[in-house]
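Researcher: We plan to redesign the surface later, but first we want a full-length starting point. Tokens attached.
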């Protein structure tokens, strides 16, 4: 019988695989769909799916998973700010920007594969080599697309807002993207070397 921990993590990762696949599918099926339509149909799904990921900070902090707490917090916090303080709070900016669709494409491809990888791993089945390679290789392309899109949307919101306090906060966050993205990229490159090297 699987343990309570295994059952929980399997359920959590399966739900997230399906949620991100639900976001990815219309982007793949309708690549020429206008940004406004993408925003209207997928913004609520993306916002709440990403909010669910806050649980991963607790997973790391309590030892439920072996993920490093600081790296997990950094990525989840950055995305949470993006979906709530930018995408949701500035619909007139986000809904018109092609960068929103690019961001969702990068996020949903990466996370559908990532959560599926964990589902297979937790199930105790040997992870197929192709899935492992995708999990630890696609970020090389998807990270720049996702991070660049996030930065652009935040920049547009910074220009749009009339609140100087919000503007100053966004400028501060925009400045963090440089060192933050380098840190995340280096971490994933290191993980890629370890995992694919062992394989």
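Model: Full-length starting sequence:
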């Amino acid at each position: 019988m699987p343990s309570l921990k295994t059952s929980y993590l399997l359920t959590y990762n399966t739900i997230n695989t399906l949620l991100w696949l639900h976001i990815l599918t219309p982007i793949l099926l309708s690549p020429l769909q206008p940004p406004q339509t993408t925003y209207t149909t997928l913004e609520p799904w993306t916002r709440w799916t990403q909010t669910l990921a806050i649980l991963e900070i607790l997973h790391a902090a309590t030892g439920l998973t072996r993920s490093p707490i600081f790296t997990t917090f950094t990525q989840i916090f950055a995305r949470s700010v993006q979906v709530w303080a930018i995408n949701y709070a500035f619909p007139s900016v986000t809904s018109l920007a092609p960068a929103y669709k690019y961001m969702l494409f990068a996020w949903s491809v990466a996370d559908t594969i990532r959560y599926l990888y964990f589902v297979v791993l937790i199930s105790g089945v040997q992870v197929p080599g192709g899935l492992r390679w995708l999990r630890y290789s696609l970020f090389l392309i998807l990270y720049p697309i996702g991070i660049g899109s996030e930065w652009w949307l935040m920049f547009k919101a910074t220009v749009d807002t009339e609140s100087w306090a919000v503007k100053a906060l966004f400028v501060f966050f925009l400045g963090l993207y440089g060192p933050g993205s380098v840190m995340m990229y280096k971490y994933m490159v290191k993980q890629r070397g370890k995992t694919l090297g062992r394989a």
